[in-house]
Amino acid sequence: MPTFDIETEEITAFEIGDTYIFKKYFDEDQLFKQMETYYNEDKYRFEIPESDLKQVRQTLDKYYYELEVADSINDYCVVVDKKSKSASTLKNSVMRKHRGQHEILIMKNKLSKEQSLEKDAVSLQKSEVANEELEWKPR
């Protein structure tokens, strides 16, 4: 019997309190319908309570997605000046926080972070707000 090697697509989720958040556009209508209860229309992201994480992972797995929880949120953060925000950087961010004249953004994955760094962003570690303590809370 033939076997099929199908690659899964990784989705990066971020643990914020007892909620896991991620941003992903699903082409499959049936999958979105199963995930719709977790979708926050105002924030354009999915918000999964810790109690539902196992079930959501199983659902995503059926559609060849793998939910990976980021070890360190700061590794996905970029900083932009409030006045010079690019649409693509904002579109690919999962959450943001204001600090003075800066906005700190959690990017949805490493690729989105790298792309924003090529435009108008700097990594959190190299920014003026690098030494500030950040506490992320779902809103």
Provide a compact summary of the structure.
This protein is an alpha+beta fold and 139 residues long. The chain folds into two domains: 9-69, no CATH class; 73-126.
Strand order of the largest sheet: 3-4-2-1-5
Q: Count of DSSP E strands?
A: 9
Low-confidence segments, ≥5 residues, pLDDT <50? none
What does the average pLDDT come to?
89
Largest β sheet strand count, sense and barrel closure: 5 strands, mixed
Q: Give the number of domains.
A: 2
Category from helices, strands and their pairing: alpha+beta
Helix content: 10-25%
Task: Compute the number of helices.
Answer: 4
Determine the strand fraction and express it as a percent band.
25-35%
What pattern of helices and strands is seen along the backbone?
EEHEEHEEHEEHE
- The termini sit apart by 50 Å
Please tell me what the overall shape is: globular
Instruction: Evaluate the radius of gyration.
Output: 16 Å
Task: Walk me through the structure.
With 139 residues, the chain is α+β, with helices and mostly antiparallel strands. Helix content is 22%, strand content 32%. The strands form 2 sheets. A 5-stranded mixed beta sheet has the order 3-4-2-1-5, covered by helices on one side. Strands 7-8-6-9 form a 4-stranded antiparallel beta sheet. A hairpin with a 2-residue loop joins strand 1 and strand 2 (19-22). The longest helix is centred in the middle third of the chain and has 10 residues, at 53-62. The radius of gyration is 16 Å and the shape is globular. The model has no long low-confidence stretch (mean pLDDT 89).
